[in-house]
Design a protein that fits this description.
With 149 residues, this protein is an all-alpha fold. It has seven helices and two strands, in the order αββαααααα. Helix 2 crosses helix 5, helix 3 crosses helix 6 and helix 5 runs antiparallel to helix 7. The chain is globular, with a radius of gyration of 15 Å.
């Protein structure tokens, strides 16, 4: 039996996905090069699909949205070490408004009854409200501005 919890990184899929989140690299001029490419690939893959969303795609998009919220200055309560290392490599580089909006849209799509296996799986458990509250909290953190420097 694999891990399956209502928070964003409490499942095997997100745990595997976060291993691919590598610290951002810098260009010769010291600029961070495409720091959001990996999280945005999971979000955009989900958004481009007009088909039924399988649970693993939803879990990856949720983990990716967590990365953007964290980069915005609003991390989850107990971020994985890989996320903390990635954040430290960003040098205060923030996702732009378009990225944050796409992440919100992906989360709304994951929460849609008619398109999301993940929602169907959670809806059949006693933890559905906790899962929905975790997604709502993530959307709130994506929306929140944080001027930490």
């Amino acid at each position: 039996m694999g891990a399956w919890g209502h928070n964003s990184f409490e499942n095997d899929t997100a745990g595997d996905w976060i291993w691919g989140l590598k610290p951002a690299k810098k260009s010769l001029l010291g600029n961070v090069k495409k720091p959001f490419a990996y999280p945005m690939s999971a979000i955009d893959k989900l958004l481009k699909s007009d088909l039924y969303i399988d649970a693993p795609e939803g879990e990856e998009a949720i983990a990716a949205a967590e990365c953007l919220a964290a980069a915005q200055g609003n991390p989850p309560a107990d971020p994985p070490e890989e996320l903390e290392q990635w954040l430290a490599s960003l040098n205060d580089t923030r996702p732009d408004a378009s990225m944050l909006e796409r992440a919100r849209q992906a989360l709304l799509k994951v929460c849609n009854d008619e398109q999301s296996e993940l929602r169907e799986l959670w809806k059949d458990t006693e933890y559905f409200q906790a899962w929905q509250a975790a997604i709502d909290n993530l959307i709130t953190r994506l929306n929140a501005q944080n001027d930490h420097k």
